[in-house]
């Protein structure tokens, strides 16, 4: 039997050992995974679909079992009115728990694909009626262009947050998430061994949906160095980078998100910050891309930095919105002094202890 990709193998182990999934759900999820492999889904899409369905079945680091809709995921698949009503609960839950229209769409699609693959018939054209109605599209009025007013800028937003962070770990988490612009999973799964020195600063290596890539860190270097100095297991390459403060053990999704949110809340409460938007791993990634585009980093380099495919629509949107402001460049051409409007280049900063 061919060896499964490492991420799929890890997901299978998680499903098999889960204390929250029923035997029926485990069987259905493993069958679903097998079907995805048989039908030659890419490793990235296979992983994403299985992750989404495993989470919605109740095995989640982000949501407790009582926060997941009822009944069990396998009980929403079928032809009856009861099963369709159950599926509606899942769609309502998705729409209520995710802000991003892309995330909502991705989870709805996962339900559709799951239902198509664990039942008889053609998995594309003969889906069970209970889930066939679920939309796989984005809203008609959806505008994917990044919104400049929601971005977090280093001097205006990140520095006040760092000034209000209590722990070296939280300072490093905030700084690295903005500096690196990683995907949520890439950030959360970092280990101490993924960090190395680089001639320009430091470097992290992540294993994302496009494969492994290395990201050079600049602004976050002093904060990350300080955290590694006091990390409980800072000399162990396999230790989670974002661990608890006492033992160096891994912590939950919500705890890692709290590393960002706790100092943000403190900065707001102290009157040092007006939030441009809700702080999320994804928002930090978007803000990182916005800064790079605004500093005229090429599309190719942004794609490599963020792990996007070549000629990606995502990178192009940031280039189009945040490339040096046209009005400012026109004014400069006509001899106007625009120096006050320019964003300074950000280099390594001294880390206050």
Automatic annotation (TrEMBL):
Keyword terms, alphabetized: DNA recombination
Domain (Tyr recombinase): residue spans on this chain: 137-332
Gene3D superfamilies from the UniProt entry: Intergrase catalytic core
GO biological process terms, semicolon-separated: DNA integration; DNA recombination
GO terms assigned for molecular function: DNA binding
InterPro entries hit by this protein: DNA_brk_join_enz, Integrase-like_cat_sf, Integrase_catalytic
Transmembrane segments: none
Region called Disordered, residue ranges: 332-353
Biased composition (Acidic residues): 338-347
Name this polypeptide is given: Site-specific integrase
């Amino acid at each position: 039997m061919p060896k499964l990709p490492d991420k799929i193998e890890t997901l299978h182990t998680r499903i098999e050992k889960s204390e929250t999934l029923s035997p029926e759900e485990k069987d259905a999820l493993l069958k679903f995974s097998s079907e995805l492999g048989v039908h030659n889904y890419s490793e990235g899409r296979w992983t994403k679909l299985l992750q989404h369905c495993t989470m919605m079945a109740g095995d989640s680091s982000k949501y407790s079992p009582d926060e997941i809709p009822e009944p069990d995921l396998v009980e929403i698949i079928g032809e009856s009115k009861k099963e369709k009503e159950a599926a509606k609960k899942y769609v309502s839950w998705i729409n209520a728990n995710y802000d991003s229209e892309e995330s909502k769409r991705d989870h709805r699609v996962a339900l559709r694909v799951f239902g198509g693959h664990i039942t008889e018939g053609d998995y594309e054209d003969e889906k069970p009626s209970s889930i066939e109605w679920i939309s796989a599209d984005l809203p008609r009025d959806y505008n994917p262009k990044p919104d400049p007013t929601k971005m977090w800028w280093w001097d205006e937003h990140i520095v006040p947050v760092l000034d209000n962070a209590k722990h070296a770990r939280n300072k490093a988490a905030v700084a690295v998430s903005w500096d690196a612009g990683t995907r949520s999973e890439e950030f959360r799964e970092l280990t101490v061994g993924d960090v190395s020195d680089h001639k320009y600063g430091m470097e992290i290596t992540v294993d994302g949906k496009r494969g492994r890539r290395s990201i050079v860190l600049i602004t976050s270097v002093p904060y990350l160095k300080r955290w590694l100095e006091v990390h409980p297991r800072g000399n162990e390459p396999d230790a989670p980078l974002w661990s608890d403060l006492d033992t160096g053990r891994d912590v939950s999704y919500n705890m890692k998100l709290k590393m960002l949110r706790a100092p943000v809340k403190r900065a707001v409460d102290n009157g040092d910050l007006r939030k441009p938007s809700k702080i999320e791993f994804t928002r930090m990634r978007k803000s990182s891309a916005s800064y790079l585009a605004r500093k005229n980093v090429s599309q190719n380099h942004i794609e490599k930095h963020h792990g996007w495919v070549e000629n990606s629509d995502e990178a192009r949107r940031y280039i189009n919105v945040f490339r040096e402001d046209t009005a400012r460049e026109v004014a400069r051409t006509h001899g106007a002094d625009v120096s006050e409007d320019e964003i300074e280049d950000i280099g390594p900063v001294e880390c206050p202890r």
